[in-house]
């Protein structure tokens, strides 16, 4: 923990890392979760983990879901995010227990909502998702999963079955002391509006999306 100098010159502690703030029941259309709210003192973001059932400590079915307003709330077909979130929530309920960590501040792979919309406008003109970010002078992917690992540590989770197609999430959790016992694919059938985006994620961002081979007819 670091210290800062107060207004009158006295030292006061400055919190770092994630702090659990509240635990509240959250009934949803998928099932009844516990919404565990956190404050990320390093970035100032408010975070939430949706916990279902008695999760234990080992091999916990887990999803790290990056915030996506357009997909999660508006049902955008530009990406598969909304469907992935719904599938993850259904999966932990079907399994009887699990955790979905919803990561705010991850919009557009970390470039924010307006940055993402600008990138989407460039994609409509023919750039792919990587090219669009670079054309705007923005990072391709600036997400940090340290806060997710901190939340899992607070929940006393030691190892996970990670629902993800992104190898970087696995690498990040392992780097932060969370064992990944298994990677569980979270494959959503593509549509005409997102097939190019998904192929770019596979070819340029190393996402594991083998199901795209079966839909070569989509343009």
TrEMBL record:
Binds 1 zinc ion per subunit. Keywords: GTP-binding, Hydrolase, Metal-binding, Nucleotide-binding, Riboflavin biosynthesis, Zinc. It catalyses: GTP + 4 H2O = 2,5-diamino-6-hydroxy-4-(5-phosphoribosylamino)-pyrimidine + formate + 2 phosphate + 3 H(+). Pathway: Cofactor biosynthesis; riboflavin biosynthesis; 5-amino-6-(D-ribitylamino)uracil from GTP: step 1/4. GTP binds at residues 63-67, 84, 107-109, 129, 164, 169. It holds the Pfam family GTP_cyclohydro2. Residues 19-185 form the GTP cyclohydrolase II domain. The active site is at residues 141, 143. It is an enzyme of class 3 (hydrolase). Its cofactor is Zn(2+). InterPro entries: GTP_cyclohydro_II, RibA, RibA-like_sf. Zn(2+) binds at residues 68, 79, 81. The keyword GTP-binding applies. Signal peptide: none annotated. Its EC number is 3.5.4.25. Belongs to the GTP cyclohydrolase II family. NCBIfam families: PRK00393.1, ribA. Catalyzes the conversion of GTP to 2,5-diamino-6-ribosylamino-4(3H)-pyrimidinone 5'-phosphate (DARP), formate and pyrophosphate. This is GTP cyclohydrolase-2. It comes from Streptomyces plumbiresistens.
């Amino acid at each position: 923990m670091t210290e800062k100098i107060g207004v009158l010159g006295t030292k006061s502690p400055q919190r770092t890392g994630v702090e659990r703030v509240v635990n509240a029941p959250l009934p949803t259309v998928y099932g009844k979760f516990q919404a565990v709210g956190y404050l990320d003192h390093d970035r100032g973001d408010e975070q939430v983990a949706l916990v279902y059932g008695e999760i234990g400590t080992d091999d916990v079915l887990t999803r790290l879901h990056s915030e996506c307003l357009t997909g999660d709330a508006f049902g955008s077909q530009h990406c598969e995010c909304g469907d992935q979130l719904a599938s993850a929530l259904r999966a932990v309920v079907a399994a009887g227990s699990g955790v979905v960590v919803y990561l705010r501040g991850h919009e557009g792979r970390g470039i924010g909502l307006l940055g993402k919309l600008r990138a989407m406008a460039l994609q409509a003109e023919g750039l792919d998702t990587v090219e669009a970010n670079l054309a705007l002078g923005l990072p391709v992917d600036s997400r940090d999963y340290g806060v997710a690992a901190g939340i899992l540590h607070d929940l006393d989770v030691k190892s996970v079955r990670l629902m993800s197609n992104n190898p970087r999430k696995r690498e990040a959790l392992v780097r932060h002391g969370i064992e990944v016992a298994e990677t569980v694919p979270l494959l959503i059938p593509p549509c005409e509006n997102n097939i190019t985006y998904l192929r770019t994620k596979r070819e340029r961002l190393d996402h594991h999306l083998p199901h795209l081979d079966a839909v070569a007819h989509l343009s």
